[in-house]
Amino acid sequence: MIQNYLEEIKSELQRAASEKDHPFRYFTLATVGLERVARLRTVVLRKFEKDLKLIFYTDSRSKKMIHLQENKNVGLLFYNPQTLTQIRMEGIANVIQDKEAIAKAWDEIELKARKDYTTVSTPGTSLDSPDQLDYLDDEDHFCIIEIIPFKIEYLQLKRPNHIRVNFSREVNRWEGEFIVP
Known about the structure:
- By secondary structure, the protein is of the alpha+beta class.
- It has 4 helices and 9 strands; from the N terminus they run αββββαββααβββ.
- It has one domain: Pnp Oxidase, Chain A, CATH 2.30.110.
- Strands 1, 2, 3, 4, 5, 6, 7, 8 and 9 form a 9-stranded antiparallel sheet that branches.
- The longest helix has 17 residues, at 2-18.
């Protein structure tokens, strides 16, 4: 019975990676760098693999990249307001270095969305006006991040009883247990 919740998590995240209107498509990524302050931001789930690896894209010059160099441990938060389902994950973030994989992912991005990775200025740089944003012509700062989770928590808010399940990766399998909501 407990494995049904893990299968639901896999199914919903697989759908979120391919359905643009799925509530889990956009999730919160938390990083903690040397400053020891949690930094949270919304990222887009681009790919989900059956072994629970998650992929998102970013600008290689962003602050999150500095935080990931300082500390690869991350937290993820997904929430579906229609079903009142929350999924929390803890995992390790890795920067994908495979040039073929990067080129393939870049080719799959719509042309209008590629500009997010081609700004002249680094993300977070001050601007006098949003119209001042300039873009590079023949260069990009596209980067792929892979998250390998080691802990997953599922929470379903419902009556008469909420359901909360904790999963931990044990070698090549996931162990689960019900916990008090």
